[in-house]
């Protein structure tokens, strides 16, 4: 079985990375960019709508 992942992109510094949904907080919680420390809801860091849906469905 393949492990699911979510692609993330910081809206401020444009750093992109991937993470598994289990390693992330709820999409409604505040998340901090590991690069520039920008703070926003995790949903705002998801790269696409599909990434957001994956995150929601696996949490």
From TrEMBL:
Family matches, as InterPro entries: DUF7836 (IPR057158)
Record-linked Pfam families: DUF7836
Limits of the DUF7836 domain: 1-59
Superkingdom as given in the UniProt entry: Archaea
Protein name (Swiss-Prot/TrEMBL): DUF7836 domain-containing protein
